[in-house]
Amino acid sequence: MTLAVLGIACSPRRNGNSTRLLLEGMETAKAEGHTTELVYLSDLKISPCHGCNACSAEGICVIKDDILKLREKLIQADRLIIAAPIFMMGLNAQTKIIIDRMQPFWALKYLHHQTLTNPSGYERVGLYLGAAGLKKPDVFDCGEKTMKTFFHMLDFRYAQPCLFGGIDQAGEINKHPTAFDEVRKATQVLMKS
């Protein structure tokens, strides 16, 4: 079975540590014969949510920007791999903007009781890949709670994430002894889920 795998690189650095993890995951999915598409948030023009609640009426956002393209890709994906760094003990701003802009999905699902997705019939599963400069044991707590909510809202089962602390400078993930192997294995499990 061939799955549609969407990867979203949320780092503001085009070649950041979390993006490097994502590239490894996407290559693994592609090598196993799945269809892959990679989106760099830094290439999109996405405004923050205005908090106007207009989407509550019909599940349609009044802001017309690149989020519409991303929403369509999210609807069609069987698997989602999202790579986002931690800034200041939470998800970085680029990631949080797209999560906040999913409010129309929330309105459709919870206010209008509509099915959000048109999957190919497979259970949808999502994987979060993250890197943080700090090594604190709770550095991913806030970001992971938000990511779990995001996946749940979009009807993706949350897979075991791959999260790496103490990774700050660009390219530092390349020195991690197990990171890429962990991402390969997690992606293989994701494809079989």
Description:
By secondary structure, this protein is α/β, with parallel strands linked by helices. The protein has a single domain, classed as Flavodoxin domain (Rossmann fold). Helices cover 38% and strands 19% of the residues. The chain has helices at residues 17-31, 55-58, 67-76, 93-100, 103-111, 141-153, 179-192, and strands at residues 4-9, 35-40, 79-87, 90-91, 125-132, 157-158, 162-164. Strands 1, 2, 3, 4, 5, 6 and 7 form a 7-stranded mixed sheet that branches. Helix 1 (17-31) links the parallel strand 1 (4-9) and strand 2 (35-40). The N and C termini lie close together (12 Å). The mean pLDDT is 93.
Q: Please, what is the CATH homologous superfamily? A: Flavodoxin domain
Please describe the biggest sheet, giving its number of strands, its sense, and whether it closes into a barrel.
7 strands, mixed
Number of helices: 7
CATH architecture: 3-Layer(aba) Sandwich
Low-pLDDT residue spans: none
Termini Cα gap: 12 Å
- Report the principal-axis shape: globular
What is the residue-mean pLDDT, rounded to a whole number? 93
Keywords:
alpha/beta, Rossmann fold, 7 helices, FMN, FMN_Rdtase-like_dom, ISF_SsuE-like, NADPH-dependent FMN reductase family protein
